Every structure is written in C-alpha cells, then in structure tokens.
Amino acid sequence: MENNDLIEKLTKRNNLSDDELKSILETNKYDESLRINADKIRREIYGDKVFVRGLIEFSNYCKNNCYYCGIRRDNKNTIRYRLTKEQILNCCDEGYNLGFRTFVLQSGEDLFYTDEVICDIISEIRNKYQECAITLSIGEKSKKSYQSYFEAGANRYLLRHETSSQEHYSKLHPREMSLENRKKCLFNLKEIGYQVGSGFMVGSPFQTTENIIEDLRFLQELKPDMIGIGPYITHKETPFANSNNGSVELTLRLLSILRLLFPKVLLPSTTALGTLHPQGRELGLKAGANVLMPNLSPVDVRKKYNIYDNKICTGEEAAQCRNCLERRVLSAGYKIVTDRGDVKK
Asked: Which pLDDT band holds residue 3 (cuts at 50, 70, 90)?
C-alpha cells in the first residue's frame, strides 16, 4: 500500500492490520504526514488548547521493585520523603492561584498512606476546590479502595500498563507482580466511573515492535480517556543502568498514531520527552498531544522523585515552571488554558 493510502486509512480510523502498523512504526518516512494529520484532528476536536495538570509527587517510597524505576524498593541510595496533608494542600493552593484546575497526586506504592489517609486528603481538596478535577496516580489497589477514593471526590486515575505482553512484562518486573492484576485494576477503575489513563514506555528494555502493537491493541480494548507515553530513560541505580534510552522520534510517531486512533483522547507531552530533547515537549504538542503536567511539588523534594536520571524542572519554583511552559506552548503555536480539560465524549 502507498504511504498516503496507509496514512489516510489510519486517519479515517479504519483498523490497520498488524503488518500495516509495523510498517508505520519501523520507518520514519510517514512522520511528516502523520504529524500533519494528527495535528489537524486535535485542532478539529480541541482547537489550539493545551490543558495543564498540576503534578504533586507526594511520596517516593514504593513497595515494588520494578527493574526500570529509580524509586524501586531496593534502591538504597534514594533519599526517601513523604509530604504531609498540609504540604499537599499548600501545593494545591499555589497551583490554583497559578491557574491549575486539575491536581495530580502521584506517588510510589506507599503503604503508609492508608485508604483513610488518602480519602481524607481527597475530601479536603474537593471541599476547597469543588470545580477542580482530582487525579490519582498511586498504583494498584483493590476495587474497594478505588471506590472509596471515588466517593471521597477523585475524578481521574492514571495507571500505565507499561506493557501488555506477558513475556515482556516478566522481563521488567519481579515475579510477585502481575500483568493480569494491572489490567484488572484498569477495568475496575472504568467500571467505577473514573476517567482512566493508561500508557506505556517507548523503548523499554527488550521491547519489540510487536510488543508496541500489542500495547495499541490493548488500548483499543480498554478505550481510556487519557494515554500517557514517553521515551524510556535509564536510571543508574537499577538493573537496567546500562540500557539505551528510548527514541524521541519513535515516541513522536506514536503520539501521532495515538491521536489518529483515539481522536478525543487526552494525550500528554511528557517530561521524559523534554528530558531527552530540548524542544521535546513542543514537538510532542505538534505531534498531536494536548496536555502538559508541570510540577507543583515543593522544590526541596523534586530531585528525590528520581524515577529516571537527569529529569528536568527539578529546581524551578511552580510559578517559574508555569511561565516557562506558557512561553514554550505559544512558540509551538498553541495556548495554555485555565480549564479542567475533561475528555470530549
């Protein structure tokens, strides 16, 4: 099939075969056409709006030992921290004054924060900022726990599946972790009524093109409201310290593919892109992304949430991050809006 025919088929959301997807994924000859079509679709649905979410990384303790993550349980060189409820609320106060209308509470899987503690924090934020969205990204929990967070006032939940291949999953995680449970959690969240986000690392160790195609097929099954992808970046204190980083080019290609496959999805241009390329986040927006997640965490803990090496924006105050992003977004041809930025239905 000719290049243009393949891109047209993808743009019209006719389901491509695995071989056709593989053809697009393994060559850059489609990139400009993909980008143009993806940007056209995002502008038809969301215009030139870019939604910002205020990220609060409130704990870097984690009970898990994922082989790729810098805050894994066995990394004894990480300086651990936990934010108090008051510190989290202060971050929300600052974020609200800067125009954020979504707060993302993210942590490792830290058992110190019981369901009661999490629900108390959510309730406080909900009572103070009733018009704002509250997003959680705190890992695998029971359906009962997810239900309690939802009833306390959480709207959204982010849980990357990371890989939908059992063989690949077993190379990235210790035996006690389960891909089946990760997928079960995602469907439980959808059933409860959350706006659900999933996604995967691009270029993680042992990943093949076939693995990525499996990820796309799983996302077609899940039908998430948000899809977060970013290039894999190594961390020196993990078993994959000597692995190569993921490809910026392939990540951008995938952002465009995702925009075409899921026209209404909320699609972040990630910090990982900005870490590997000076204009990575701007390029992500041009490839079809429409969400940015600047950091609202206190400056003195940002470097401690070191899931990968050389993470950017760890020394900037929240206002600096916000102003810097505004300039970057304008330079790319888009505009930041003060909006919850709910997914279009």
From this structure: low
Q: How far apart are CA 326 and CA 331, in angstroms?
A: 9
Query: How many domains does the chain divide into?
Result: 1
**H-helix or E-strand containing 58?**
strand 54-59
Whichever domain contains 179, its CATH number is 3.20.20.70
Helix (H) / strand (E) containing 211 = helix 209-222
Condensed to tens digits (0 to 9), the pLDDT of residues 311-333 reads 988 888 888 888 889 999 999 99
Average pLDDT over residues 21-30: 94
For residue 59, being part of any structural domain is answered with: yes
What gap in Å lies between CA 89 and CA 124, rounded to an integer? 8
How far apart, in whole angstroms, are the C-alpha atoms of residue 284 and residue 231? 11
Please give the share of the chain, as a percent, with pLDDT higher than 70. 99
Residue 258, C-beta contacts closer than 8 angstroms, at least 6 positions apart: 216, 219, 227, 229, 265, 267, 288
Whole-angstrom distance between the N-terminal and C-terminal Cα of the chain? 33
Q: Which helix (H) or strand (E) holds 179?
A: helix 179-192
- The helix/strand/coil state of 200 is strand
Is there a domain that residue 183 lies in? yes
